[in-house]
């Protein structure tokens, strides 16, 4: 069903309060971009609803249905509707208005999706994983390093719907940057999809740079003088967090490649060149993550080798001290036996001579162990 047909159909939603409730929310705050982090109470699922014509923002004041009616009559206009963690009820009217596929709607509401790109008729549905670096004063075995969220994007000829999950990944600043470049925004909804993908991939690179600082710190601690005493739990924690980052980054390569190379109706060929640039940046992030994983494996193996060497050194020290203690133990044990006829038993100098022999033997053993590095 076309968007115009849906406009006539959704006018009956006033009675159930579905779409008109969304429209009232959009009309109530026509000029406030709640997606901006500085003003983001997120009192409802609707973050913002803005219409653009020829790359220029159309003044607000209309409800959602009127806005869609306006841009559907213009060849160079589209609506950008932003939502944050909508419920199924909140999204029902919007899905009917824009004729969104039920499977895509289910994915957008439930979240926890793998990065992907799907086409439903004239609508493109993209899922992107957002990531952010969690600041911490000291890396421990339980520190959270990477936090992930999701952005779902519906792209049609005259609309872009963004559904964000998570407390990070705000699109408010991105919207402001696009509005400052009307020439780029005039290229249509595909330009918004490119900007979102570029923004998400740039965050990947920023996070990998921050993770590298943690890896460098762990590497420095492991190869320090007392590196064998370093906590291996930090290495495992970094590997777990790196795995979560890899799950967000790696699957996005195929969707970006499709956007950059395969013909898609809602994506202008001029925009595909921009997607190739984003794909190159994603490849860089993927290679960095793979290199970090290999480096952490090497650091872990080096740490285990250091622990093994330290244990061998401890065993040698214990053995050396046990040998030193064995000499007086043996001599005293012999003279402690209750025999009547013992060598030098009744000699006046027997006691100091025995002590001298014990001390000499212990000194010789100590010098030998010290020279060989056992002590």
TrEMBL record:
Enumerate the InterPro entries for this protein.
CorA_cytoplasmic_dom (IPR045861), CorA_TM1_TM2 (IPR045863), MgTranspt_CorA/ZnTranspt_ZntB (IPR002523)
Species whose genome carries this gene:
Streptomyces vastus
Instruction: Give the family per the record.
Output: Belongs to the CorA metal ion transporter (MIT) (TC 1.A.35) family.
- Give UniProt keywords alphabetically: Cell membrane, Membrane, Transmembrane, Transmembrane helix, Transport
Name recorded for this polypeptide: Magnesium and cobalt transport protein CorA
Question: Where does the record say this protein resides?
Answer: Cell membrane
* Topological type in the membrane: Multi-pass membrane protein
- Where is coiled-coil annotated? none
Q: Report TM segments.
A: 318-337, 349-369
Protein's UniProt keywords contain Transmembrane: yes
């Amino acid at each position: 069903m076309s968007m115009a047909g849906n406009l006539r159909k959704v006018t009956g939603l006033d009675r159930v309060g579905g779409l008109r409730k969304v429209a009232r929310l959009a009309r109530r705050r026509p000029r406030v971009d709640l997606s901006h982090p500085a003003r983001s109470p997120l009192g409802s699922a609707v973050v913002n609803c803005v219409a653009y014509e020829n790359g220029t923002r159309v003044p607000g004041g209309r409800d959602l249905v009127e806005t869609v009616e306006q841009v559907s009559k213009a060849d160079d206009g589209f609506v950008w509707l932003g939502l944050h963690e909508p419920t199924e009820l909140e999204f029902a009217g919007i899905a009917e208005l824009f004729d969104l596929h039920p499977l895509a709607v289910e994915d957008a509401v439930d979240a926890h999706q793998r990065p992907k790109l799907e086409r439903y008729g004239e609508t493109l549905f993209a899922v992107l994983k957002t990531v952010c670096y969690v600041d911490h004063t000291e890396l421990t075995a339980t520190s959270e390093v990477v936090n992930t969220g999701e952005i779902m994007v519906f792209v049609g000829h005259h609309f872009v719907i963004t559904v964000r999950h998570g407390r990070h990944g705000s699109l408010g600043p991105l919207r402001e940057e696009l509005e400052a470049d009307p020439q780029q925004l005039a290229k249509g909804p595909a330009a918004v999809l490119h900007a979102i993908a570029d923004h998400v991939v740039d965050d990947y690179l920023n996070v990998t740079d921050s993770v590298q600082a943690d890896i460098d710190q762990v590497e420095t601690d492991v190869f320090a003088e007392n590196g064998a005493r370093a906590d291996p739990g930090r290495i495992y924690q970094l590997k777990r967090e790196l795995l979560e980052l890899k799950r967000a980054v790696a699957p996005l390569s195929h969707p970006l490649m499709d956007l950059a190379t395969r013909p898609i109706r809602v994506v202008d060929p001029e925009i595909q060149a921009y997607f190739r640039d984003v794909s190159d940046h994603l490849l860089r992030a993927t290679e960095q993550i793979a290199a970090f994983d290999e480096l952490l494996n090497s650091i872990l193996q080096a740490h285990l080798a250091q622990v093994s060497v330290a244990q061998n050194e401890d065993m040698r020290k214990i053995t050396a001290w046990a040998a030193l203690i064995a000499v007086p133990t043996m001599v005293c044990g012999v003279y402690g036996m209750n025999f009547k006829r013992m060598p030098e038993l009744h000699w006046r100098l027997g006691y100091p001579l025995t002590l001298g022999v014990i001390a000499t033997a212990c000194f010789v053993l100590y010098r030998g162990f010290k020279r060989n590095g056992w002590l």
